[in-house]
Design brief:
The complex is a heterodimer of chains A (114) and B (111). Chain A is 0% helix and 54% strand. Chain A has strands at residues 5-7, 10-13, 19-24, 31-38, 42-50, 53-56, 65-71, 74-79, 88-95, 104-105, 109-113. In chain A, strands 2, 4, 5, 6, 9, 10 and 11 form a seven-stranded mixed beta sheet that branches. In chain A, strands 1-3-8-7 form a four-stranded antiparallel beta sheet, with no helix packed on it. Chain A is globular, with a radius of gyration of 13 Å. In chain A, 37% of the residues are buried. Chain B contains no helices and twelve strands. The chains are: A mainly beta (114), B mainly beta (111). At the A-B interface, strand 4, strand 5, strand 9 and strand 10 of A face strand 5, strand 6, strand 10 and strand 11 of B.
Amino acid sequence: DARVTQTPRDKVTEMGQEVTMRCQPILGHNTVFWYRQTMMQGLELLAYFRNRAPLDDSGMPKDRFSAEMPDATLATLKIQPSEPRDSAVYFCASGSGGSNTEAFFGQGTRLTVV
Amino acid sequence: AQSVSQHNHHVILSEAASLELGCNYSYGGTVNLFWYVQYPGQHLQLLLKYFSGDPLVKGIKGFEAEFIKSKFSFNLRKPSVQWSDTAEYFCAVMGHGKIIFGKGTRLHILP
């Protein structure tokens, strides 16, 4: 059963620490999305990649967030330094990249910054 | 840039009632439209999608949605809801490969 895998599932960290979230897209999918979900803002698109190249990261705070795809099986989202306002659930999703693609979501990483 | 507006933030219904959740989108090109559901504590799952063709789309669990191009709408419907439909529902639009979500509608079904 193909699925998007995210690690860790839960992360509690202190303000100022670096946080790295990982995502393994479904094998063969060439599009990866990162979303942040909060009660106030809902689901915000932070960045998305196609064929490992970032196509749009305009939703991401540039000063502290960075997203990369070191290879086709791994996407990472880093926050350095982390702040309490970064507390949220971060979802990764992948898609086949065609014109009729849909997004398949991972289980999310619940981040709490204290 | 595309955007999505969901009219109802919170809906409460009794079991067996009919459901309609509103969704309007803004995008100048050809759109792909989606409804996703998020059960408490879980990730988003696809309910249904519209890419082209018949504007009335049927999805899983008895849900359907109608694409009305002239109204830029893609409302979700279900004739008779069940307690297990309690969840948050998200409308989404894809344009230029980017998928943007509405803020969601929390649906609470009373047993």
